Amino acid sequence: MNILDILGPVMIGPSSSHTAGAARIGRLAGIVLGEPPAAADFYLHGSFAETYQGHGTDRALVGGLLGFDTADERIRQSLELAAAAGISISFNRTDLGDVHPNTVKAMVKGKSGKTIDLVASSIGGGNIRVVELLGFPVDFSGQFHTIIIPHRDRPGLIAAVSSLLAERGINIAQMKVTREQRGAEAIMIIEADQSCPTELVEQLAAIPDIRDVITVRPL
């Protein structure tokens, strides 16, 4: 445990769970999208659904999507900034089932028409937990250098990825692979101790049957 776990992050208030965590979830959605957003629909569960306007969760989610850090003053004007940029935003109360009370599902569309979705929880102190990504169940925090690799399941692909990372001296802290079924679409989530340089991203993307390589620095 470090001092941030006790005091929480530097942030635009009033609540680390409802604002800092929400901003990090929004930032992650923007990073995974990888292009300017055109529209975003947020489905809010539990406490998020009950208090999202009063606690600024709505502004934090949109501010994060626009790329703002948790302490960025522009979060306060994020809804207006999104509207000025022509980004369509909606907030919807929903029941996401057996998840943390501060959970949101984000469905985001980019300017090119690309769409992504994720489900994540703000678990306190500004920390988050991602539980679903691109339709796959996942489990990661965004506290490590994270590599997200959608791919087609086949023998040897995980070994090829691991070998490239080892050659570049990147240590894997955690890895989880989830697939629809044998030989079908899958996703690999790698949490590493070091960042993934651009050249390595290009090498990974060149491996047959890898759909995309998304890198996320610690949020």
From TrEMBL:
<protein>
    <recommendedName>
        <fullName>L-serine deaminase</fullName>
    </recommendedName>
</protein>
<keyword id="KW-0408">Iron</keyword>
<keyword id="KW-0456">Lyase</keyword>
<comment type="pathway">
    <text>Carbohydrate biosynthesis; gluconeogenesis.</text>
</comment>
<dbReference type="InterPro" id="IPR005131">
    <property type="entry name" value="Ser_deHydtase_bsu"/>
</dbReference>
<dbReference type="InterPro" id="IPR051318">
    <property type="entry name" value="Fe-S_L-Ser"/>
</dbReference>
<comment type="similarity">
    <text>Belongs to the iron-sulfur dependent L-serine dehydratase family.</text>
</comment>
<dbReference type="GO" id="GO:0046872">
    <property type="term" value="F:metal ion binding"/>
</dbReference>
<dbReference type="InterPro" id="IPR004643">
    <property type="entry name" value="Fe-S_L-Ser_bsu"/>
</dbReference>
<dbReference type="InterPro" id="IPR029009">
    <property type="entry name" value="ASB_dom_sf"/>
</dbReference>
<keyword id="KW-0004">4Fe-4S</keyword>
<dbReference type="GO" id="GO:0003941">
    <property type="term" value="F:L-serine ammonia-lyase activity"/>
</dbReference>
<dbReference type="Pfam" id="PF03315">
    <property type="entry name" value="SDH_beta"/>
</dbReference>
<feature type="domain" description="ACT">
    <location>
        <begin position="146"/>
        <end position="219"/>
    </location>
</feature>
<dbReference type="Pfam" id="PF01842">
    <property type="entry name" value="ACT"/>
</dbReference>
<keyword id="KW-0411">Iron-sulfur</keyword>
<keyword id="KW-0312">Gluconeogenesis</keyword>
<dbReference type="GO" id="GO:0051539">
    <property type="term" value="F:4 iron, 4 sulfur cluster binding"/>
</dbReference>
<keyword id="KW-0479">Metal-binding</keyword>
<dbReference type="InterPro" id="IPR045865">
    <property type="entry name" value="ACT-like_dom_sf"/>
</dbReference>
<dbReference type="InterPro" id="IPR002912">
    <property type="entry name" value="ACT_dom"/>
</dbReference>
<dbReference type="GO" id="GO:0006094">
    <property type="term" value="P:gluconeogenesis"/>
</dbReference>
